[in-house]
Amino acid sequence: xxxxxxxxxxxxxxxxxxxDRISTISTKYVVSNQKIRFxxxxxRCRQYGLDPAEVLSEADERExxxxxxxxxxxxxxxxxxxxxxxxxxxxxxxxxxxNLPLFYSLFLDGEPNNLATENCxxxxxxxxxxxxxxxxxxDLKLRFVCQRKQKVASSCGENVLITSYLRCRQYGLDPAEILSESDQKELEEVLQLHKEVGVANGYWMFATNLVDKTTYxxxxxNLPLFYSAFSAGQPDNAGNRENxxxxxQHSIGVFMxxxxxxDTKLRFICQHxxxxxxxxxxxxxxxxxxx
Length: 291
Prior knowledge:
Layout: E1 22-23, E2 29-36, H1 38-47, E3 51-52, H2 58-68, E4 80-85, E5 94-95, E6 118-127, E7 130-137, E8 142-147, H3 161-170, E9 174-175, H4 181-191, E10 203-208, E11 217-218, E12 242-251, E13 254-261, E14 267-268, E15 270-271, E16 275-276, E17 288-289
Parallel strand pairs: 4-8, 10-14
Antiparallel strand pairs: 1-2, 2-8, 3-8, 4-5, 4-6, 6-7, 9-15, 10-11, 10-12, 12-13, 16-17
């Protein structure tokens, strides 16, 4: 098999203080009773052999709420850290583990408002069984949620954009980016083997305009689209929900780009990690080649 798959991590330290007992209701999420600061909680998840919790979809949110049901406290002061912050970009929240923007969110009305240095993300119960998100000061103490490391089932099949992005990472690869015409030509050579035509038979490449509705950025490098090969009239954000980027075969041998709903399942493209060329070059230039 070409890729080595990640195994699910089960290790949690046995010698925990009473206040740090772990509740494991969900198959994915693990909830700690201990109240600690945001970045301390992030580190604690790592120490447990877990990942800091991220909520990338409505399905994730439902599973998180199931994990939080045993905790009955109401209100923002009784919330739980989930691990996104706007400290790197005051205009937008990003998940710390995957570096993805918030494709899905469940903020309370009027939030996030960054009141009094509120730069970190909590989930809390606003009424019995009803959960919302809120920005909260990172140096205050809340309980926190970790998640089990996710196992990759297969390198085949179709996935929504977020899942595809994470799978590239799990395979030790980078999500595909097309930064030049030569990149486009190289990708087309790879795709020549596939004969399906039309936007419904495309492949995810990893740019989105979810952060800035007017501009597409590559998720891995955070670069804008210096080069593009959009089909005529695209991107058009049809239905106000086409915020992610696919490449598809417009006609046999002719490949174009299109904006497409991020929650649609497509095949996807990863790329080998680029490494710096050791050969000397102009001091203001950096060369790259493939391994």
